[in-house]
Amino acid sequence: MSLLKIHGKKVRKVSETELGALTEGAAFSPDGRYLYAGNFFDNDITILRLQHNKLVPVGSLKLPGHPASMSGSAP
């Protein structure tokens, strides 16, 4: 996973980290402090924290199947 920073018309990579096998989707938490990435072959979600323009691994969340097996609800 690469973290890009956009300043005007310039884009630069500020951080990079390895994820699981065949990452198929990613989403930031509502406050923008965490990034969740689904790993298809590992049947889990990698959890990363955004800290000083770096993606810091926090842990992972095992799922009963592929990341598409995860469901939730919105308020």
Helix content: under 10%
Radius of gyration: 13 Å
Mean pLDDT: 87
What gross morphology would you assign? Answer: globular
Strand % is over 45%
Alpha-beta content class: mainly beta
What topology, given as strand order, has the largest sheet? 3-4-5-6
The helix/strand series, from N terminus to C terminus, equals EEEEEE
Count of DSSP-assigned helices? 0
Low-confidence stretches: none
Distance between the termini: 29 Å
Number of DSSP strand runs: 6
Major sheet characteristics: 4 strands, antiparallel
Task: Draw up the topology in text.
Blueprint: E1 2-7, E2 10-16, E3 23-28, E4 34-39, E5 44-51, E6 54-62
Antiparallel strand pairs: 1-2, 3-4, 4-5, 5-6
Description of the molecule:
The chain has about 80 residues and is mostly beta strands. It has a domain at about 20-70. It contains no helices and 6 strands. It has a 4-stranded antiparallel β-sheet with strand order 3-4-5-6, with no helix packed on it. It has a two-stranded antiparallel sheet with strand order 1-2. It is globular, with a radius of gyration of 13 Å. The termini are far apart. The mean pLDDT is about 85.
Brief summary of the model shown:
Helix content is 0%, strand content 56%.
Tag the structure with descriptive keywords.
75 residues; mainly beta; four-stranded antiparallel beta sheet; globular
